[in-house]
Amino acid sequence: MILKRKKFGVFACLGFLALAGCNSHSGAAIAADKSPSVAMTAKKVQKGKAVFVENCVACHQADAIGQPGVAPSLSNPEFLSMASSEFLTKTIASGRAGTSMVAFGEILSKQDINNVVAYIRSQATLPFRGEQIDAQPDAHGDERLGKMWFADICSTCHGVNGNGYESGGTGTAIGKAGFLNTVSDGFIRETVRHGRSNTRMRGLQGPSGLANLTDREIDDIITYMRTVPSKDEE
Length: 234
Ligand code: HEC
Ligand code: HEC
Description:
234 residues, mainly alpha, 2 domains
């Protein structure tokens, strides 16, 4: 997983080369994230909005607010606080196989993708924490327990095996390789802890959460999720 993410960093890096500079293999795309504003001139954002309106709005809706069961919000504050430019670029270019999120790398130029990433980023309201979150340790929990928590709690919205919308729920395909190969364990952990405000993904930790999962239980779930794509070949 880490290897894939690093490999991709080189690609994301090329796009930001002129603006942010790329000086290390491990932190290339992250370097761009340190100062997202650098890569985000008003002109870029404006061009990116035009790309968005033409190619994305049908599913992700105006202002990228999303629509349950159709496409997730891309303007959600918690999402943007942890979704790095690398994550966004990879998701847009490669899509998510087995969902209606197609690979726009075959449709749009790298420039268009860079611009639409700048537009999505421009809606962020919380400080960017992606670097710290991606640097969190990997989960080493109990797969069998995780499977149980997943079936009890997550599958209601994300589907059995995390198949996503195709199983009729409102949650995305978190059991498929397209998502899992793009995110760190920290990204999943923080999303489960805090949720995404104004979506059906509520925080699942703490007394006000939909469930009150411990850190260990969340790691059990992540450990299980990492085993799902291999069990669910398509
Ligand atoms: C009540 C419904 C619901 C439940 C229960 C739920 N989720 Fe979600 N989850 C969502 C929705 C909806 C989204 C996407 C938010 C949006 O549409 O903008 C989401 C998003 C996520 C994401 C980010 C996925 C992405 O595509 O970026 C992760 C990770 C996640 N959920 C994990 C979990 C886990 C693990 C559980 C169980 C412990 C769980 N969720 C329980 C509805 C739910
Ligand atoms: C035909 C509908 C459709 C179109 C058009 C579409 N998307 Fe998506 N997008 C989706 C769906 C569905 C998902 C969630 C897939 C899953 O279940 O994992 C998604 C997920 C995403 C994600 C990940 C969000 C998250 O919560 O992790 C990003 C980023 C994204 N899309 C960007 C774009 C951009 C940018 C465009 C236009 C260039 C676009 N999408 C066009 C349907 C669409």
